[in-house]
Structures are given as structure tokens and as C-alpha cells.
Amino acid sequence: RPVVFSGMQPSGDSLHLGNYLGALVNWVALQDDHDPIYCVVDLHAITVPQDPAVLHEATRRTAAQYLAAGVDPERATLFVQSHVLAHTELAWVLGTLTGFGEASRMTQFKDKSARYGAEATTVGLFTYPVLMASDILLYGTQLVPVGDDQRQHLELTRDLAARFNSRFGETFVVPEALIPKESARIYDLQEPNTKMSKSASSPNGLVNLMDDPKVIAKKIKSAVTDNEREVRYDPQAKPGIANLLDIYATVTGRTIPELEAEYDGRGYGDLKKDLAEVVVDRVAPIRARTLELMEDPAELDRLLAMGAEKAAERADRTLATVYERVGFLRRR
Ligand code: TYM
To answer: Is 45 helix (H, G, I), strand (E, B) or coil?
Structure first.
């Protein structure tokens, strides 16, 4: 079975609709005929200023959200990144193969360092994509289901894998990104030219999976559109409507032309009302299940320990091969 690996950062806010539609939906779908490994990337989460108590809570909650969305701990390996030491160890080796200029070209680094300012721009934020490459390459990963914003990091991962292989001998599988068609980039509901993200400027633009269903409906109904009346898919001219149609199509599995036909001659109000309903129907049970799972932290920790053990066994094997290939003396 092809290995699938992916991860999300635990952060103060809950996962949002972009995380869910851009990645998590695919994680769940891939479980049947793949060997899936899903990680809560806490090491990545400390590359920007963070509050330890919040991170602690968010790490369990993120794992609970994976489960609530349908990740099955029987079929998938579910673990916390910092529990498997090989991630940071391989990252060190890969860092020595990464060009300074190459890392400097990462647009997420440029965006985040601009957002957080010079003071908060750390070496850890700079080497972030190298750690991500390590996550992926440790497991012989073939497929990485992510949103469009991770495309460049995946390219770097592929380059590093190929570079290591050509310098030290065939070691890593060169992975492919799996990026969805309609939901690769979900946009902020208030600023439909900006991607939906935790750092949204208005809370109304961001649908969190832990939002109260009434709040979700309200956010969707007040989404920014345009002053025409025609429901037509045109991301350039009508980014707000295109975003709503993308969300609608992904949640329901219906096609954009089908939806355009259904709302032909009807106003934006109808579209928003129906969309609010389908999103709430999908998200409310995930929220409820997450809250339930959070009531039993011991059980969550048990699942995560089980996952870490399985992951570490695989990761350690890859790391041992890497250490041998680069010429490290084996510890006896
Ligand atoms: P993160 O935590 O920022 O986001 C998690 C996933 O959600 C996707 N995503 C979106 N998709 C569509 N529309 C949006 N508005 C949107 N916002 C976020 C992201 O593309 C991602 O798939 N670097 C990664 C975490 C990571 C990782 C890995 C991923 C660390 N190691 C190894 C894959 C493999 C990140 O920060 O994702």
C-alpha cells in the first residue's frame, strides 16, 4: 500500500474550514487503500511566538479533530511529531543539503517573517520547510495530501530527496503532492482574495471547526460577494461567489456547473442560506465529537502513544540508513 503522510499545526484556534476541505477530507478518503500516517506537527508550531499552555491544549484538540473528522486510528498511524525523535535528527542532516538561497526563496517564510517582524523571525522559522521534508521522507511517503499553500514546500522536499539519493545512493522515495481541485485554496469569507487562515484580519472571514453552528451560519450568510446577482463561477471577476461554490462543491460532492444551474436566476441569498445549511450539517457533528473526545484526555494520550510507537519504529529504520550513508560511525 502506498504510504501517505500529512500533518497540521496545533495552534490556539481550532482547525478551520480551509484545513478541513483542503486536506483533512482527503486524509480520510485515502485511508481505505493506502498506508496513512497523520501527524500533529507541534515542532512546527513553535516556529512563531506561542503560549505553552495553549499549545499543550491545542495538540490534543488537533488530534481529537483528526479523529472526529474520520481518521481511523486502527488504519492510520496517528501521532505527535515531538514524540518521534527522528524528525529533528533527519532535519539536521537535510539542513546540510539545503542551500541558503533555496530556503530563502520559500514564500511562506517571506510572508510569515513579514507578518511577525524581524524580532520574531527565527532560524527555526527559516528551517521550517526542512523539518517538513524530514517528516515526509522518514516514512517512504508517496503521497502528501495538502492544500495549495504547501506546494512549494513539497517541491523542496522532492529536490532534497533526489539530491540525497544522487549524492549518497538511493535512499528516499520522491513524494508527490496530492492537492484537491476545488478546495486547494479556500478563501477568507470577508476578503475573498486572501486565503482563509488563522491570522485572518476579521474573525468573520474564518470558519473554525469549533465554532458554534449558529456562528458558522451567520459567517457564511455575511460572506462578501459582489454587486451583481448572477451565480456564476468566475474566480477572477467574482472571487466571493467562486469561493462559496468551491466550498459547496467540496462539501456536497456536486459539480460547479450543476450548482450554477441550480442557482440560475436565484439570488445570492438562496445560495448562502443553502450553503450555510450543508456546511453546518457537516461541521456540527465533527465539533460535537471533538468535544466528546476532549473529555477523555487519557484515552487520546493512549492512542497517540500507540501511534508514536509505530511511527518511531519506521522512522528509526530510515534514520539509521541515512546515518550510515552519510558516513557516521555506528554507536556500539
Ligand atoms: P497548516 O497547519 O498551515 O495547514 C494544514 C493543512 O491545511 C491546508 N490549508 C488550506 N487548504 C485550503 N485552503 C486554505 N485556506 C488552507 N489553509 C490551510 C494546508 O495546505 C495544509 O495541508 N507545513 C504544514 C504542516 C506540515 C506538513 C508536514 C504537511 C508539517 N509537516 C508534512 C504535510 C506533510 C502546515 O503548516 O500546514
So the answer is: helix
Residue with cell 496517528: 78
Distance CA 14, CA 16 (A): 6
Contact indicator for 97, 168 with CB cutoff of 8 Å: no
pLDDT, averaged in runs of 10, over the chain (332 residues): 97 91 97 97 96 97 98 97 98 98 96 92 97 98 98 98 98 97 94 92 93 98 95 97 97 96 94 98 98 98 98 98 97 88
CB-facing half-sphere around the CA of 150: CA atoms within 13 A? 27
- Measured by CA distance, the residue closest to atom 1 of ligand 1 is 8
> Would you call 238 a catalytic residue per the annotation?
no
- Which ligand 1 atom minimizes the distance to the CA of 44? 30
**CA separation (Å) from 190 to 97, 205, 242?**
41, 5, 13
Does the CB atom of residue 157 touch ligand 1 within 6 A?
Answer: no
Q: How far is the CA of 148 from the centre of ligand 1 (A)?
A: 8
Residue 14 Cα to ligand 1 midpoint, Å, equals 13
Ramachandran sector of residue 308 (left: φ over 0; alpha: ψ -120 to 50; beta: rest): alpha
Nearest-atom number in ligand 1 for the CA of 195 is 15
Q: Is 281 annotated as a binding residue?
A: no
Ligand 1 centre from 145 Cα, in Å?
A: 9
Taking each continuous run of H as one helix and of E as one strand, the counts in the chain are: 14, 5
8 Å CB contact between 23 and 147: yes
The 3-state DSSP class for residue 227 equals coil
The number of C-alpha atoms within 13 Å of 60 and in the hemisphere containing its C-beta is 17
Q: Which of 146, 151, 155, 246 to mutate for ligand 1's pocket (most ligand atoms within 8 Å of CB)?
A: 146
CA distances from 220 to 64, 248, 267, 310 (A): 25, 11, 15, 41
Q: Which of 110, 181, 195, 214 is catalytic?
A: 195
